[in-house]
Amino acid sequence: MSISRRSARRSVRILGVAAASAALSLGLSSTALACNISEFSAEATCDGSKGVITVTDKDASGTPATITVFLENNGSDAKQVGDATPIKGSKEGTSVTFSEDWQPNAEYRIRVKTDNGQVDKDISPNLTTPSTACTSEASSSPTPSASPSPSESESTPAESDSPTPSASESSSTAPASTSSNAPSPAVGESNLAETGANSNTGLIAGVAGALVVVGGAAVWFGMRRRGAHSGN
Question: Which residues, including other chains, have CB under 8 Å from residue 122's CB and lie 6 or more apart?
Fold first, then answer.
């Protein structure tokens, strides 16, 4: 039984469509499994007081790649952070971490290069760190320890207050001594006044004058008697 030319053409056409469909399916599947730079992401976080940069690969094909991190300065590489680190992605995501004491608002360039050369690009845009630096519990602990210092400073004024009363006592003692010295010159002056012009002085002078008069009278009478005796 011979096959007509028309039937042969129909068979060839059907085989061609099937082959094209198979090729398209393979192309789509290979594209879906291909590694893409969009499957990589980076984030700057803190591990306690230390800063870290974490790069995550969500390549479902698991294509091996190498991650390199650079610190940027005015659009150029200032330094490389750590060593180039290999990574093999997964659908759930695989991460690698770089220890970096990053500063706030710093810029980092992350280079991704697959082993098969399918990807050799930077994660876009560049990574910019948070505006707040990492802090640890140790750095926050000095804050409560700093509270005793005010108490010590408060105790210092308390001690300074105690000398103040003593100073006032010394100052009060000083006026007492001056007041005790003040009467002494007054007493001296009163003694001098008494010795210079006392009411007893006039009495003594009067008695002395009387004694002089009595003595003179006695002498006069004595001389008169003696003259009378000599005349007899």
Answer: 109, 110, 111, 112
Assess contact for 67 and 85: CB atoms under 8 A.
yes
Contact 74, 111 (CB under 8 A): no
Domains and CATH numbers, the chain: 37-137 (2.60.40.10)
For 177, counting Cβ atoms within 10 Å of its Cβ (0-12 exposed, 13-18 middle, 19+ buried), the class is exposed
* Phi and psi torsions of 138, nearest 5°: -65, -40
Q: Could you report the per-residue pLDDT of 170-192, keeping only the tens digit for each?
A: 444 444 444 444 444 444 444 44
CA-based nearest residue to 65, from 44, 34, 43, 92: 34
Q: How far is CA 102 from its chain centroid?
A: 21
Question: What confidence tens digit (pLDDT) does each residue in 133-153 have?
Answer: 998 654 445 555 555 555 544
- Alpha-helix runs per DSSP H in the chain: 5-33, 137-140, 142-146, 148-161, 163-181, 183-196, 199-231
Look at the block and give the residue holding tokens 């098969």. Answer: 116
Q: Do residues 52 and 85 make contact, with C-beta atoms less than 8 angstroms apart?
A: no
